[in-house]
Structure formats: structure tokens, C-alpha cells
């Protein structure tokens, strides 16, 4: 059934209804057949399964295994501290699992926002009587009675319209209220048809009657709800990378643990001893503090973004925003203010265009009459506390007229013919002191057709072909600037001739151009994004000419090679053609439907892009969720858009996205810094176990002492690295490619094969110095509670902490000096350093620390062996950084010389 082209009578007949509405019994029967008018829930993974899954992924299972083995060891040999180890590992698994579950749980709240957007009750005519019924009981064939302020509960076809205008921005993306009429039209797309009202839209003015043809999931709103629930984009690139890091580390730890378990058996250890040895290897290689530290670092990044008016709803989005290679942005309310202003006028009296304040002279009769049309030809209602309710274009005209002529007396309203989509004009009859006047405004071509004269400096003149061409050229010129153009006309009526329907023999007074200005700072933000290698693509439901004009104004389009694609053209494109279009540097998409925004996101992701999508309406929700990162508007955005998004802009300012990108890039760099810091300590934790098996010495480091480093002394310094400020050049580099690994070969080599070897040497040196000083001889056994053994393992632990103190500064940058910028610029660094030193002091020099971690108080001399090695580690890494900086400078100079050599002339 084509509801748009059929007459009202035909639509009623096809739906089995009539002007008096459905019979109540028939309405109940249809409700039983088609179901309630509600948004359909898509069945997903049950909440309990997602909860369990947060604690049963591979990394968690590995830790559960280690905890189980530790508990078994405690049962077999009580009092060895294995119970403490088991409890500590279980705590790590629980903290990580609860955090992961909370991230996933947010999706459950999205549908509630969709349901609340729809009205709860509506008025229908059934059996000739007007009833108010719950929206959920509306069925196809019901005749709805709609008036100003009503929300439309279902998709319906207008039967009668009396000045009806509807705000459909949340569903179609249109920036202004649209006039509606009941007449049949050739337009088959219900999204833009002037005789169709869509569920979830709102009546701005007028009233009408409409027959319902779709309810619940069959409405356009229901389709959007379905897309919003099923259009998820999967895990963010950062989460995928963290999962990969977890898998790599887990595989390494498991392999080494199993291998050394077998080695332990082969060198004569009993089954229990070999099991403890295997657990130690696993615990030494699994950085238990990594996931909590990542979570806390992301939370700190989210806090810094909040200070820059960017709210993070989904913590991994902190880093994902920094990885974005493409930002797809809506226009209205995102790049622009969604507030119309009178930007220009074209005066018929002297054929001149320019700003209204400069050209309009209220003392001139023709100009004063044009201002009277702007002020009184409207259907606005006063807003409590000041301002106006109604069409933003009319608000802009009234405010401009009030600004130019503050004391304009209001003439009595004698009659009105409201605006509608078919007439494309509005007229009012006002009782002026010199008699009644007809004031009219509308589309230029419509007003030109009704006008016969044009205002001049010497009075009215016939509107000949030359004058008509001048008006048409002026209208085109204003439209090319992206302005909404209206023509203003008027004519005096006789005292007894007060027929407002007689919109003929008009005098054309001029044209006005209205503008939705770009937000402050948007042009600079677009330029900054381009400098950072991030493409900005406009994706709007608005008119192509308006979209292109705004794109030029903000610098998004700078040359003739830019591409403008309408939704209609996009519909005809194949996937290969779309990918070819998306490879252009400057692209504007206009008149897009929700599915098309979703298609763009999926196509870009297929091309390997990391996609950020901004939006504010219900129609944007599916694409927001499908993107790598969804960005919703905090002020103008709908609840649905905010629930679907990962990030919310508090001030709806596109410029804040650039600040978020900078912070996001800093987060990725900082995560690499503290990963290097955390992984470095794995080597001095692993080497003692190798020495224990290969050389038959007493175990230099216990498992509980490993946890003292991984979950104690390392945590706050690692967080301090996560709080480092962005590198000054971070926004002058392109985004990191999706293929770039967090756990790269270079990072592993630096942590394990370079810095870690220094730390292992310091740890083993401190261990043997204490043993030799205490009189130990090679091959001599030491009991786990022997004072010399406790002191020696404590020296090993302290040496690791001392070298990690130096490593804290070493890991501040991969290339810059450890002391650039000065450490004092990051208060967290000094706090983490103090916390690390304070915690090791408590572990070593307090009775409860000695009991809990198997330590003993150290004499000052036991700290000295690790200091020269720690200093050597710092010097060696400074030399490595200097070599890298010099190599990078050399490569850059070589590149400049090659460019200069290849340049003509």
C-alpha cells in the first residue's frame, strides 16, 4: 500500500477504517493480532551469562588456576603463606571481572530511553467518539487527533491538516519544523513525505487528523530502535589490544609455568615443590596489576577529559577517541548552533544585498513595511520568562525586527492563513492605522508568482521580466551562501475588503536570508583535526546546498575536488563505489537516512578506519553504537543518542572532540609507558626461579614477595605514568594505525632484554651479597624461616624496588630524557615515588609487614649493591634515547633533502 500517493479516502479504505474511526470491537481484535504499539526488545545474551563471562575469560581462568594451586599447596603444607597468595589472586580476578561487567551493563539502559521518548497516552476517534487511550493500544486504522505539543505515537497518514508543522529532527535529521498537508503526493519515501507523520516526532503548531498505518516495531521509530540494539560495533580497538596482550602474556606464562614444572621434576624436586615452582613462574610472568592499572589509568584520562567538557560513558573510549582516523559528524546542533539568525537582506527598492543593520532603514516606508512583515507575519507564542516558542526562522525574524524597531506597535490580527507544505507561504491580515494590510512571506518562487509589483525608491513599479530575473538571481546568490531564503511581500486592502485568502497583486518588498551559524571554535577544530591526520566527514539529513555552504564556511571543504553525496545517490551506490567515494579527503553527505549513516560507519570500518560518529537524535543512535566510538551531544542530544554513545559533549561543542583526541592519544602513549614499567619487573621476578632450579640455590624471592611488587609497590608509580601530560607533538602526528600493537616487539625487547636485565642483575647481586656476608656457603640449605634467608630474600625484593624507582623516570618517554619535562610538572609522579618508598619501608621495617610478606629488617649496607646498577640502567637508557633522537633527526633531514631535490627548479 502506497500511503503517500493515495487519497485520504483510499487510505482509509485500504486500512479498513473510516473517518469516524474503528469500531471498538475491531480495535480490540486488531490489537490481539498485531500486538501492542511498543518498541520491540531484541533478545541478547542474558545478563547472568555476561556476568559469569567477566570472570571466566582466558586471562581470568589462568589466574583462577594459579589461585587453586596455591590453595591446594596451603592445604598440603599449612603456614607457608600460600593462602595469602590465593586470596590475593582471587581479589585481582574479582576486581577485573566486576569492572568488565559494569562496562557491558550500560547497554541495558538504552532501550529504556527509547521507550520513554514515546508518549504515554493519545486521543483517537473510535466509533464516532473521541477517546484517550494508552499509546500501547493504538492499532493500524485508528484515527488520531493531534494538536500543538502532542507527540506522534505511531506512523500515520494525514487525513486533515490545519497549519500543521512537525519537528522530525530526532527521526529524520531535518533541522527545522516541516509543514504537513493531507494532499496526495508523488514522494514515496515516508521519511520526507509531507502527508506522513512519524512516531517519535512532535507537533510544533496547528492541528490535524491522521490514520495509523504502522505501529510498534513496524514504524520508522521501531526500526531505529532495532538498529540501535543490534548495530553494535563490537569491542573497541583498545579493548581488542588489551585482550591480545592478555592472551600473549597468558600463553607465555602458562608455557613457562608448565615447562619449569617439568624441569623441576627432572632436577629432583618432589611433586609439591615442582608445583610451587610452576606457580611461581606463572605468577612472576603474569602482571597481576596490569588490568587494574589500565582501568585506573583510563579513569584518570576520563577525569581529565571531563575537565575539558568531554564526558566518558565507556572507559575504553578514552583511548579509542585518540585512535580515531575519521570523525563523521552531524551538522545541525553539532557544527552549527541550531539557532537561526537574520544574516542578510536583499532590498527590492535599490536591488542591494547585505547585513540587515546596514541596509534596512526603518524610517523608510518600504523598509518599515518589510520589518512589519517580519514582525507580525508569524504564529509564535510567548515563552514564560521571555523569548518565543515556534519556528526558529520566525523567531529569528521577530528578534531582528524588534532589534531594529523596538517600539513597533502591534496591529490587531484580523485573519491568518497558516503555512503548509503545499502553499509554502503564510499570510496574515493586520489592522494598521492606515487601514488593513495583508502581510505575506514564503518561498521566493511562490511569492514571485503571486506578486505583480515591486518596491522601488520612488514607489511601487510593475514586476517585469527584468525585475523578476533580478529577484531570482538575488535568491540564488543568498542560497549559494547556505542561507534559508524567504521573500517578503505586502499589499493594502480596502476597509471592507478583508479576505486573507486573496493573496494576489502583491508588492514584493525584498528577500531575507537566515543562517544557522557555526559554533564558536568549530573552524579551528576542523583545522586541528586535519593537522592531526583525522578526516572530518559531514553526515547530515539536511539540504545538500545548506550542508555544502556550512562545510565551506568551517573549512571542511576547501577546494573543488570535494565530494557531495546525497542519500538518494548513496542508495544507488555499490559497496565498491562507496569505498571509492570514502577515500576522498573532503566529503559531505546530505539527506541521509539512519540506515545510510549506519552503512557509512560499516564501510569505513571495513576500510580499516577507526570511526568516531557524532549525533544528537534518535536517528543517529544506530550509527553511534556501530561506530568505534559514538559521540552524543549533552545539551541538545536525545536520551537515546546519549545512551547509545560512548562519549557525551557537555557543551555540544565539536571543538571539544579535538581536545578529547589529544587526551586519547596521550592515554595510549601512557599505557605503553606503564606497561614497560610493569613488565620490566617480570625479569627480576623470573630470574630467581631459574637460578633456584638451575643452580640449586635457596629460592631468592617468594611468590608473596612477587605480589608485593606487582600489586603493591608498582601500582601507584604505574598510575603516575598514566597521568603524564600529552607530548607537545602528539597532535602533529597522524593517528596510530589500527595494526599498531600495544605490546610491540620493541616494547618487549626494551622491558625484557634491556631494562629487565639490569634489574635482575641488581636483585641477584643484592641476594648473594647478603648471603655471603651472613656466612652462607654454596650448596648449603636454608629453611624458609631462617633469619639469613629472610634477610636475603628481602634484599632481593628491595633491589627490585630500588631499580623500579629509577625505572619510573626511565619509562616517562621512549625518546625524551627521563627529566624532560621536569618531574615536578606531574605531581602524581612524586606521589607515586613517595608511596613506593613508603610501602617498601612498611614491608621491611614493620612486624606485620615481616609476617605477611616473609621479610626481615635490612641493615643500611644491604641497600647499597643495587644502587650502581640502577644508576647504570639510567645512563644506558639515556644513551639509547639520545641515539634514537639523533637517528630520527637524521632521517627527517634526509627526507627534507630528498623533497628539495625532487622539487622543480
TrEMBL record:
<feature type="transmembrane region" description="Helical">
    <location>
        <begin position="58"/>
        <end position="76"/>
    </location>
</feature>
<feature type="transmembrane region" description="Helical">
    <location>
        <begin position="829"/>
        <end position="848"/>
    </location>
</feature>
<dbReference type="InterPro" id="IPR036412">
    <property type="entry name" value="HAD-like_sf"/>
</dbReference>
<dbReference type="InterPro" id="IPR023214">
    <property type="entry name" value="HAD_sf"/>
</dbReference>
<feature type="transmembrane region" description="Helical">
    <location>
        <begin position="747"/>
        <end position="768"/>
    </location>
</feature>
<dbReference type="InterPro" id="IPR004014">
    <property type="entry name" value="ATPase_P-typ_cation-transptr_N"/>
</dbReference>
<dbReference type="InterPro" id="IPR023299">
    <property type="entry name" value="ATPase_P-typ_cyto_dom_N"/>
</dbReference>
<feature type="domain" description="Cation-transporting P-type ATPase N-terminal">
    <location>
        <begin position="2"/>
        <end position="75"/>
    </location>
</feature>
<keyword id="KW-1003">Cell membrane</keyword>
<keyword id="KW-0812">Transmembrane</keyword>
<dbReference type="InterPro" id="IPR001757">
    <property type="entry name" value="P_typ_ATPase"/>
</dbReference>
<dbReference type="InterPro" id="IPR023298">
    <property type="entry name" value="ATPase_P-typ_TM_dom_sf"/>
</dbReference>
<dbReference type="InterPro" id="IPR044492">
    <property type="entry name" value="P_typ_ATPase_HD_dom"/>
</dbReference>
<dbReference type="Pfam" id="PF00689">
    <property type="entry name" value="Cation_ATPase_C"/>
</dbReference>
<feature type="transmembrane region" description="Helical">
    <location>
        <begin position="674"/>
        <end position="697"/>
    </location>
</feature>
<dbReference type="InterPro" id="IPR059000">
    <property type="entry name" value="ATPase_P-type_domA"/>
</dbReference>
<feature type="transmembrane region" description="Helical">
    <location>
        <begin position="82"/>
        <end position="102"/>
    </location>
</feature>
<keyword id="KW-1278">Translocase</keyword>
<dbReference type="InterPro" id="IPR050510">
    <property type="entry name" value="Cation_transp_ATPase_P-type"/>
</dbReference>
<feature type="transmembrane region" description="Helical">
    <location>
        <begin position="248"/>
        <end position="269"/>
    </location>
</feature>
<protein>
    <submittedName>
        <fullName>Cation-transporting P-type ATPase</fullName>
    </submittedName>
</protein>
<feature type="transmembrane region" description="Helical">
    <location>
        <begin position="703"/>
        <end position="723"/>
    </location>
</feature>
<keyword id="KW-0067">ATP-binding</keyword>
<dbReference type="Pfam" id="PF00122">
    <property type="entry name" value="E1-E2_ATPase"/>
</dbReference>
<feature type="transmembrane region" description="Helical">
    <location>
        <begin position="788"/>
        <end position="809"/>
    </location>
</feature>
<dbReference type="InterPro" id="IPR018303">
    <property type="entry name" value="ATPase_P-typ_P_site"/>
</dbReference>
<dbReference type="Pfam" id="PF13246">
    <property type="entry name" value="Cation_ATPase"/>
</dbReference>
<feature type="transmembrane region" description="Helical">
    <location>
        <begin position="275"/>
        <end position="299"/>
    </location>
</feature>
<comment type="similarity">
    <text>Belongs to the cation transport ATPase (P-type) (TC 3.A.3) family. Type IIA subfamily.</text>
</comment>
<keyword id="KW-1133">Transmembrane helix</keyword>
<dbReference type="InterPro" id="IPR006068">
    <property type="entry name" value="ATPase_P-typ_cation-transptr_C"/>
</dbReference>
<dbReference type="Pfam" id="PF00690">
    <property type="entry name" value="Cation_ATPase_N"/>
</dbReference>
<feature type="transmembrane region" description="Helical">
    <location>
        <begin position="860"/>
        <end position="879"/>
    </location>
</feature>
<keyword id="KW-0547">Nucleotide-binding</keyword>
<dbReference type="InterPro" id="IPR008250">
    <property type="entry name" value="ATPase_P-typ_transduc_dom_A_sf"/>
</dbReference>
<keyword id="KW-0472">Membrane</keyword>
Amino acid at each position: 500500500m502506497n500511503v503517500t500517493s493515495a487519497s485520504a479516502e483510499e487510505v482509509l479504505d485500504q486500512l479498513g477504517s473510516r473517518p469516524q474511526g474503528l469500531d471498538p470491537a475491531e480495535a480490540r481484535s486488531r490489537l490481539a493480532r498485531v500486538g501492542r504499539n511498543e518498541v520491540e526488545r531484541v533478545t541478547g545474551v542474558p545478563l547472568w551469562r555476561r556476568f559469569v563471562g567477566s570472570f571466566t575469560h582466558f586471562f581470568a581462568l589462568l589466574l583462577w588456576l594459579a589461585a587453586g594451586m596455591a590453595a591446594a599447596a596451603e592445604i598440603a603444607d599449612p603456614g607457608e603463606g600460600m593462602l595469602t597468595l590465593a586470596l590475593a589472586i582471587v581479589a585481582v580476578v574479582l576486581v577485573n571481572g566486576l569492572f568488565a561487567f559494569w562496562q557491558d551493563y550500560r547497554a541495558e539502559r538504552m532501550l529504556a530511553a527509547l521507550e520513554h521518548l514515546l508518549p504515554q497516552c493519545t486521543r483517537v476517534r473510535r466509533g464516532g467518539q473521541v477517546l484517550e487511550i494508552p499509546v500501547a493500544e493504538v492499532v493500524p486504522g485508528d484515527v488520531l487527533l493531534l494538536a500543538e505539543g502532542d507527540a506522534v505515537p505511531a506512523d500515520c497518514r494525514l487525513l486533515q491538516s490545519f497549519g500543521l508543522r512537525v519537528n522530525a529532527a530526532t527521526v529524520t535529521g531535518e533541522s527545522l519544523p516541516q509543514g504537513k498537508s493531507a494532499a496526495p503526493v508523488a514522494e514515496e519515501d515516508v521519511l520526507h513525505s509531507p502527508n506522513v507523520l512519524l512516531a517519535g516526532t512532535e507537533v510544533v503548531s496547528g492541528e490535524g487528523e491522521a490514520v495509523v498505518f504502522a505501529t510498534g516495531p513496524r514504524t520508522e521509530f521501531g526500526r531505529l530502535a532495532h538498529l540501535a540494539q543490534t548495530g553494535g560495533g563490537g569491542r573497541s580497538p583498545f579493548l581488542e589490544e588489551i585482550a591480545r596482550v592478555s592472551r600473549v602474556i597468558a600463553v607465555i606464562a602458562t608455557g613457562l609455568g608448565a615447562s619449569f614444572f617439568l624441569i623441576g621434576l627432572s632436577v629432583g624436586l618432589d611433586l609439591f615443590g615442582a608445583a610451587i615452582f610452576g606457580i611461581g613462574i606463572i605468577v612472576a610472568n603474569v602482571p597481576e596489576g596490569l588490568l587494574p592499572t589500565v582501568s585506573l589509568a583510563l579513569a584518570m584520562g576520563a577525569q581529565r577529559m571531563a575537565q575539558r567538557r568531554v564526558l566518558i560513558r565507556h572507559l575504553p573510549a578514552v583511548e579509542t577517541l585518540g585512535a580515531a582516523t575519521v570523525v563523521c559528524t552531524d551538522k545541525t546542533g553539532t557544527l552549527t548552533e541550531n539557532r537561526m539568525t537574520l544574516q542578510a537582506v536583499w532590498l527590492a527598492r535599490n536591488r542591494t544585498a547585505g547585513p540587515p543593520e546596514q541596509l534596512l532603514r526603518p524610517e523608510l516606508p518600504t523598509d518599515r513595511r518589510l520589518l512589519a512583515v517580519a514582525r507580525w507575519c508569524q504564529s509564535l507564542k510567548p515563552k514564560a520568562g521571555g523569548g518565543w516558542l515556534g519556528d526558529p526562522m520566525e523567531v529569528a525574524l521577530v528578534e531582528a525586527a524588534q532589534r531594529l524597531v523596538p517600539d513597533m506597535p502591534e496591529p490587531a490580527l484580523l485573519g491568518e492563513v497558516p503555512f503548509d507544505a503545499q502553499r509554502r507561504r503564510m499570510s496574515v491580515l493586520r489592522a494598521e492605522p492606515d487601514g488593513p494590510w495583508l502581510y505575506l512571506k514564503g518561498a521566493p518562487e511562490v511569492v514571485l508568482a503571486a506578486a505583480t509589483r515591486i518596491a522601488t525608491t520612488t514607489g511601487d513599479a510593475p514586476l517585469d521580466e527584468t525585475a523578476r530575473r533580478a529577484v531570482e538571481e538575488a535568491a540564488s546568490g543568498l542560497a549559494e551562501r547556505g542561507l534559508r531564503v524567504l521573500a517578503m511581500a505586502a499589499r493594502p486592502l480596502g476597509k471592507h475588503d478583508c479576505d486573507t485568502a486573496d493573496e494576489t497583486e502583491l508588492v514584493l518588498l525584498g528577500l531575507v536570508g537566515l543562517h544557522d551559524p557555526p559554533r564558536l571554535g568549530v573552524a579551528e577544530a576542523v583545522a586541528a583535526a586535519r593537522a592531526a591526520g583525522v578526516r572530518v566527514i559531514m553526515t547530515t539529513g539536511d539540504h545538500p546546498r545548506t550542508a555544502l555552504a556550512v562545510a565551506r564556511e568551517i573549512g571542511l571543504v576547501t577546494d573543488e575536488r570535494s565530494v557531495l553525496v546525497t542519500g538518494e545517490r548513496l542508495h544507488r551506490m555499490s559497496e565498491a563505489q562507496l569505498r571509492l567515494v570514502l577515500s576522498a579527503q573532503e566529503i559531505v553527505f546530505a539527506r541521509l537516512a539512519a540506515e545510510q549513516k549506519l552503512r557509512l560507519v560499516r564501510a569505513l570500518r571495513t576500510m580499516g578506519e577507526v570511526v568516531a560518529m557524532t549525533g544528537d537524535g534518535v536517528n543517529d543512535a544506530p550509527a553511534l553504537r556501530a561506530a568505534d566510538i559514538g559521540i552524543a551531544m549533552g545539551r541538545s542530544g536525545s536520551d537515546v543518542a546519549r545512551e547509545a554513545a560512548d562519549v557525551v559533549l557537555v557543551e555540544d561543542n565539536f571543538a571539544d572532540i579535538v581536545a578529547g583526541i589529544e587526551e586519547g592519544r596521550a592515554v595510549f602513549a601512557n599505557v605503553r609507558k606503564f606497561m614497560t614499567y610493569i613488565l620490566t619487573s617480570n625479569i627480576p621476578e623470573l630470574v630467581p626461579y631459574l637460578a633456584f632450579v638451575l643452580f640449586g640455590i635457596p629460592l631468592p624471592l617468594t611468590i608473596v614477595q612477587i605480589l608485593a611488587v606487582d600489586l603493591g609497590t608498582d601500582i601507584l608509580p604505574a598510575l603516575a605514568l598514566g597521568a603524564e601530560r600529552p607530548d607537545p607533538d602528539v597532535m602533529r602526528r597522524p593517528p596510530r594505525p589500527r595494526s599498531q600493537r600495544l605490546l610491540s616487539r620493541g616494547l618487549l625487547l626494551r622491558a625484557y632484554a634491556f631494562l629487565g636485565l639490569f634489574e635482575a642483575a641488581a636483585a641477584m647481586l643484592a641476594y648473594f651479597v647478603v648471603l655471603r656476608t651472613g656466612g652462607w656457603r654454596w650448596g648449603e640449605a636454608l629453611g624458609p624461616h631462617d633469619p639469613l634467608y629472610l634477610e636475603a630474600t628481602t634484599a632481593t625484593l628491595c633491589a627490585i624496588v630500588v631499580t623500579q624507582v629509577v625505572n619510573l623516570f626511565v619509562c616517562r618517554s621512549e625518546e625524551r630524557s627521563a627529566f624532560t619535562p621536569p618531574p615536578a610538572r606531574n605531581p602524581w609522579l612524586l606521589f607515586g615515588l613517595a608511596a613506593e618508598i613508603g610501602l617498601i619501608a612498611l614491608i621491611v621495617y614493620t612486624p606485620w609487614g615481616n609476617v605477611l610478606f616473609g621479610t626481615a629488617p635490612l641493615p643500611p649496607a644491604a641497600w647499597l649493591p643495587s644502587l650502581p646498577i640502577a644508576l647504570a640502567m639510567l645512563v644506558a637508557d639515556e644513551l639509547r634515547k639520545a641515539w634514537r633522537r639523533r637517528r630520527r633527526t637524521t632521517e627527517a633531514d634526509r627526507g627534507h633533502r630528498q623533497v628539495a631535490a625532487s622539487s622543480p627548479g
